[in-house]
Amino acid sequence: MGYSYNPKSLCADEFINDEEILETLAFADAHKDDVQLCYDILEKCKPHLHPASEHGAMITHREASVLLACEDAGVNAAIKQLAHDIKQAYYGNRIVLFAPLYLSNYCVNSCLYCPYHAKNREIPRRKLTQDEIRAEVIALQDMGHKRLAIEAGEDPKHNPIEYILESMDTIYSIKHKNGAIRRVNVNIAATTVEEYRMLKKAEIGTYILFQETYNKEGYKRLHPTGPKSDYNWHTEAMDRAMEGGIDDVGLGVLFGLESYRYEFAGLIMHAEHLEAVHGVGPHTISVPRVKPAMDIDPDVFDNGIPDEMFEKIIALIRITVPYTGMIISTRESQAVRERALRYGISQISGGSRTSVGGYTEQARPHDTEQFDVSDQRTLDDVVSWLIDQEHAPSFCTACYRAGRTGDRFMSFCKSGQILNYCHPNALVTLAEYLTDYAKPDTSQKGFALIERELLKVEDEKRRRQCAEAISAVVHKGERDLRF
Ligand code: SF4
């Protein structure tokens, strides 16, 4: 049966339409040498050209694909510069920090790129008890984390929704010293509207589900068995999540599995689809690349992308979906992360362990890891490194807890309001971190950064309130103050 492209359709074959993607790639090839067209497309995205309410027009997946295909050095430099400017306009120099928490590596699927696949008989299977989760969360709180992304394989017997809900409840309930986990994002398999409703009730932050690949044929090859092998069920999951009341959803592609140009067009079309149907685009977009792990050799997948192209993709996602939070994990090295931060990344993980129960082990365990961690620095090292580059590390979770989610967050972000709230919130939460967890050297330069950043809060009243809140954190021991 032939499908035609329709971004408003709820059928995956129509909103991620193969024919439309192939035509997009042909269109991009036909126009990639038209340097003037590329500059014209970039011009439309410049934040200062638009009133605050729009704050930068979004371009289409076709236009973005032309930019991706263009090989002109001048255009490519302009793409990176514009991505940097857009990140500054929407998010300022704040970088939000989080950590993954692996609950269980039991899984009934057979994804060819993941060591948790059901046929891997070598990997020790492990699922954390609630007591073990408590110990992990305390270890994470002692590092200074406030925001987690919980991860579990798909296994109705070992990891049913009740287990995930109970785990979220446990995580939110732990108050250890001055620590608290204030936002739990959830990365679990595609499920029913009913179960998404349960996650919403349990106060999920963002529901994260990586598409892995938008190429349906490739998807079938990479997922030979298990519930995840159903491409449409997986691709339509975000619509069910939104129907279930979750309005912050996070997209992502596993770059390296299939052609990056196809994936890029599919990813942008998915964002356009969410905007067209729900009026809310993706809250976040992640950019993982296939990495080595037990039983997994990334060279088996012949679509690996070099760092230079990877950075261009990051820059173009920032330009095309300017309001979205962009996430890069410790899969990537310090050097790649450093450059990616310049081109639009707004959230990073730090001090991560990608094994089940990894945070309570003295040495980094490898036996249950989902992927090799390239950036193995501690959270404090990461905070210190961000400060050295004049980024403002943020542990803020205020929007979600003040009900600024979904379309409310989007209009807040698109109208530039984020800077009046997020910047002060970033500084107050950084002051908490520096007071409670930082090494003396990090603390010293962190407070010096706060002094400099306070001057950027334009509204005088808000600047005074922010300074007062920071003083209350440092001198009166108050916590969880927010705007
Ligand atoms: S990617 Fe997810 S679903 Fe696939 S094998 Fe790994 S844990 Fe299971």
Automatic annotation (TrEMBL):
Keyword vocabulary terms for this entry: 4Fe-4S, Iron, Iron-sulfur, Metal-binding, S-adenosyl-L-methionine
What positions belong to coiled-coil segments?
none
rRNA-binding as a keyword?
no
Q: Does the keyword RNA-binding apply?
A: no
Q: Which residues form the Biotin and thiamin synthesis-associated domain?
A: 286-393
**Origin superkingdom:** Bacteria
**GO MF:** 4 iron, 4 sulfur cluster binding; catalytic activity; metal ion binding
Reported cofactor(s): [4Fe-4S] cluster
What does the record list as GO biological process? sulfur compound biosynthetic process; water-soluble vitamin biosynthetic process
What protein does this entry describe?
[FeFe] hydrogenase H-cluster radical SAM maturase HydG
Species: Ellagibacter isourolithinifaciens
